[in-house]
Specification:
This protein has seven helices and two strands. It starts with 5 loop residues before the first helix and ends with a helix. The longest helix is centred in the middle third of the chain and has 27 residues. It is mainly alpha-helical. It has a two-stranded antiparallel ribbon. It has two domains: about 80 residues, no CATH class; about 110 residues, no CATH class.
Length: about 210
């Protein structure tokens, strides 16, 4: 069988259509059963025919249907983000973290810098600190969800940042008595700043 030309291996003529060639390949493979070596020969013959047809198309001698994919072509996938894989990490953590690109990092940093700066203004913090935190959570939901449209993951990450940030701030201020007021920051504002920092991490480094 290997001494035959590719068309003979598939049992088609050289003027066969692509549909006929594809059907012939499937038919011959089905007839071969579980013989992997012969199946590989058939696949190689099919690829050889497509390569020949590709050359003819490039020379303008034939027109190839849009659905035909040639063996030497592989789809190019634009890499917008660089995934940070963690060896031996649990399956539920798979593909969770990423290295953000420059524009994304600047955007998230700018948003949370503005929110944090507003929280440091006493008149704004006294009147609207919960609103600022709510905006921070909302931005986190937006930033994470827009990457791969995983709203549940965005919601979980944002809520965890809110809860963990508030809990850590309460421990530091109320139990460890961190003297935040000595630098002119109330406990609630300190908690808000810590929440903003965690929301920035979630927005920038998770997907």
């Amino acid at each position: 069988m290997s001494q035959q030309n590719p068309y003979e291996q598939l049992g088609v003529t050289e003027d066969a259509t692509f549909e006929e060639i594809q059907a012939a390949k499937q038919r011959v493979i089905a007839q071969l059963g579980s013989d992997l070596q012969l199946q590989d020969n058939v696949e190689a013959a099919y690829d050889a025919i497509l390569m020949e047809r590709l050359k003819l198309r490039q020379q303008g001698k034939i027109k190839v249907p849009d659905g035909i994919r040639f063996p030497e072509k592989s789809p190019a996938v634009p890499a917008k983000f660089i995934s940070l894989s963690v060896p031996n990490s649990p399956s539920w953590m798979g593909d969770t973290f990423e290295q953000p690109d420059r524009s994304q990092l600047l955007t998230t940093s700018g948003v949370y810098a503005v929110l944090g700066g507003a929280a440091l203004v006493p008149s704004i913090a006294n009147a609207a600190l919960p609103t600022l935190v709510a905006f921070g959570v909302g931005f986190s939901l937006y930033f994470v969800n827009q990457k791969q449209h995983r709203f549940k993951r965005a919601l979980l990450g944002s809520l965890m940042a809110l809860i963990v940030g508030s809990a850590i701030a309460a421990i530091l201020v109320n139990y460890l008595h961190l003297p935040v007021e000595q630098i002119g920051v109330h406990g609630e504002v300190f908690a808000g700043l810590l929440v903003f920092a965690l929301l920035w991490i979630v927005s920038s480094y998770t997907k």
